[in-house]
Amino acid sequence: MCGIVGYIGDKDVASVLLAGLWKLEYRGYDSCGIAVLNGGEIDLRKTTGRLMQLQELVDKTPISGNVGIGHTRWATHGEPTSINAHPHLDCKSKIAVVHNGIIENAYVLREKLIKSMHIFKSNTDTEVIPHLIEENFQGNLLDAVIKSMKELEGSFAIAVISVDDPGKIIAARKGSPLIIGIGENENFIASDIPALAGHTKKIIILEEGQVSLITQNDVKVYNLDGKEIKKEPEKIDIAMEILDKKGYPHFMLKEIMEQPDVIRDNIKDKWTNNSINLGEKFKMSSSELASITRIIIQACGTSWHAGYVAKYLLEDIARIHTEIDISSEFRYRNPVVSGETLVVAVSQSGETADTLAGVREAKAKFLKILSFVNVRNSTIARESDNAIYINAGPEIGVASTKAYTAEIFSLYLFSLYLARIKWTLGDNIVEKRINKLKELPDKMEKVLEKKGEIEKISEKYLSAKNFLFLGRGINYPSALEGALKLKEISYIHATGYPAGEMKHGPIALIDENTPVFAVVTNSSVYDKMMSNLEEVKARKGRIIAIATEGDERIKEIAEDVIYIPDVDEEISPILTALPMQLFAYYVAAKKGYDVDKPRNLAKSVTVE
Ligand code: AGP
């Protein structure tokens, strides 16, 4: 999703803005730009493509000043061109705006503004904002922005500067995240915390419908009635190191390899004094939990796959009816619910628009909401009644890896926590299962040690056009996740399927050109999986199997076997994810694609 930065202070504003945009690069974008107040002018530099091109543009035609805003754009309305890149200006080039999100009434506003003789240059929704502010400007930029905010519909965050009201930045939020960084004799704006790394650890998080007036030595926040709101800065912990690949070629590989330590840290953090500790944001009482008779999990993408795994866990361990919904479906399906329904949101970023909308939909139905998120203080965490942090650490690669296994781990612990309260498992069983969890990180490391072997296997499939991923039971969502990893970074069409479904259509795809990646580890459905794979083999299908160490039978039908240590079926998705993450990584890297920033994708999808 788009990235916003802003700076006001004595440093060279263009360098600060560009450095901030570089730190947001991982979010995915297709054009970028900066605008700086320079005496009585706005100096504007913007381009399609990467930040390197913007850097070259600024090097060629330097700009100076001490107030500026910058943007990386992930195209929604209007193709990626330099005209459509942000910042956008008003008719007289006296107001500059950068924007994240979507203005849903842009067409109506544009028509109205054109009738008032405004001249538009781009075909973006964003460009209505500077013209609307120009229309409302009567000398005070804050008032003009507040007035304009009331006319704008949709979900967005904006930052505004003006030649006619200099020495300040106005930032406003209605749906998309926006953070103010408080420095010494300087202040910053960012759409995401990493942009502030190295500058400050003091932030103010703008809430819904809040507008901020930022000068070099002061930050004030107002509501849309123009009333000032007192907000205490929060301290955050962002070390510069999060933006360091630590010697790995890509953030994605670094984050794949970090997973055993993420699970170790989570065991330490969530299993204290022989009890499950779900963190400071989890306040549901035992009686509240005991009364739950139905759980609806809503999420997107990889988080939806983690939620799907949790459906099996919650039903099997806590014996609670559990549904799994894709957030963009959940938010519009008007589910039949009752007071005993718990809505669970799963989100790495805590900012995914559809999942946030699902949380708000649940709130509107007076349902209890529990969120599993990675980013602390994210919007979903703050708007949920309760939240459990998955503590995966900052995940920079657009393709989610360590967040996925950390989400499953936290959801598994929550299932055990519920099982204790609902007496579906005795304390001794829960304790036994937790102690088995302690073996997991070492087993994960054993799998990751096979990365060379998996790299070699990947070389055989670089020219594949289609892939099938098969799994059963709790590893059916594993197959879905394996397919998503491959397709989103290697651009090879890949589909995850429940293996038992093959005969109902997908087996028509099988021939020597459609490789099949199968999760066939020791489990209650092992024999069923083997029969499904026999059917694939009989049609010349090429099988890559993830199997349990010691399984000799699988060698008879699989062309390649990736062995993993034996593990209880219920937590096997944490282990089976690793070979598929590595496989997708090596295929994409060997095809020369931008593994950390795949085309068309953004790290956090903050628009519908
Ligand atoms: C995962 O690899 C994708 N990048 C994407 O599907 C992601 O999982 C999805 O957008 C949900 O993001 P969230 O977990 O931050 O809500």
Q: What does this protein look like?
A:
The chain is an alpha/beta fold and 608 residues long. The chain folds into three domains: 3-241, Glutamine Phosphoribosylpyrophosphate, subunit 1, domain 1 (4-Layer Sandwich); 246-447, Rossmann fold, CATH 3.40.50; 450-593, Rossmann fold (3-Layer(aba) Sandwich), CATH 3.40.50.10490. The chain is built from 19 helices and 27 strands. The protein has an eight-stranded antiparallel sheet, with helices on one face. Helix 1 (13-23) runs antiparallel to helix 2 and helix 16 crosses helix 19 (572-590). The termini are close together. It binds 2-deoxy-2-amino glucitol-6-phosphate. 2-deoxy-2-amino glucitol-6-phosphate is lined by residues 300-303, 347-349, 352, 355, 398-400, 488, 604-605. 2-deoxy-2-amino glucitol-6-phosphate (AGP) binds next to helix 9.
Structural class: alpha/beta
Give the biggest sheet.
Answer: 8 strands, antiparallel
Q: Please tell me how large the radius of gyration is.
A: 25 Å
CATH domain topology of the largest domain:
Glutamine Phosphoribosylpyrophosphate, subunit 1, domain 1
Which ions, cofactors or small ligands are bound in this entry? 2-deoxy-2-amino glucitol-6-phosphate
Please report the distance between the alpha carbons of the first and last residues.
11 Å
The proportion of strand residues reads 15-25%
Strand arrangement, largest sheet? Answer: 3-2-4-1-10-9-11-15
Shape: globular
How many distinct helices? 19
Number of domains: 3
Look at the structure and name the CATH superfamily of the largest domain: Aminohydrolase, N-terminal nucleophile (Ntn) domain
What is the residue-mean pLDDT, rounded to a whole number? Answer: 94
| CATH architectural grouping of the largest domain | 4-Layer Sandwich
Q: Just give the CATH class of the largest domain.
A: Alpha Beta
